[in-house]
């Protein structure tokens, strides 16, 4: 099964953008994520449309944050990415008229809706600033080990 890793990858990029003193080009971001610049531009465009990043063309152009990390929730980024499907599970459609299949589908759908709501609530409670703090703590711990 193929996983959609756009959310953690974009969060990674946003943390780097906060640290950079100049815009990051799509090519730089592509090298960071081991993907091509066209994929980066397509992904970042959704974030730009929601006001999280901005871009400038030409010499010294690239991507920058458009707002402070403290104003960006992980839920906002998830939604800007199109709210990728969380689970590979889905309802059965083998016998749609069967009442047993309907009951099984209803139970499955209810559980998936609850899980999606829990996931959204968790993302809404975390800002990019929280991730930056986690990074700083990990960096400090890593330096202490050296």
UniProtKB/TrEMBL annotation:
It comes from Denitrobaculum tricleocarpae. It comes from the Bacteria. PANTHER family: HTH-TYPE TRANSCRIPTIONAL REGULATOR YWGB-RELATED, WINGED HELIX-TURN-HELIX TRANSCRIPTIONAL REGULATOR, RRF2 FAMILY. InterPro entries: Tscrpt_reg_Rrf2, WH-like_DNA-bd_sf, WH_DNA-bd_sf. GO terms for molecular function: DNA-binding transcription factor activity. This is Rrf2 family transcriptional regulator. Pfam families: Rrf2. One of its GO terms (cellular component) is cytosol.
């Amino acid at each position: 099964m193929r996983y959609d890793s756009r959310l953690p990858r974009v969060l990674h990029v946003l943390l780097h953008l906060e640290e950079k003193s100049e815009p990051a080009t799509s090519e730089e971001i592509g090298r960071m994520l081991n993907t091509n610049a066209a994929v980066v531009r397509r992904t970042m465009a959704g974030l730009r449309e929601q006001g999280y990043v901005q871009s400038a063309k030409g010499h010294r152009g690239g991507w920058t944050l458009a707002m402070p990390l403290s104003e960006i929730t992980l839920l906002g980024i998830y939604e800007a990415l199109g709210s990728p499907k969380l689970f590979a599970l889905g309802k059965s459609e083998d016998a749609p008229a069967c009442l047993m299949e309907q009951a099984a589908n209803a139970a499955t759908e209810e559980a998936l809706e609850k899980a999606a709501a829990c996931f959204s609530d968790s993302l809404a409670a975390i800002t990019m600033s929280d991730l930056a703090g986690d990074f700083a703590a990990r960096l400090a711990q890593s330096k202490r080990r050296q």
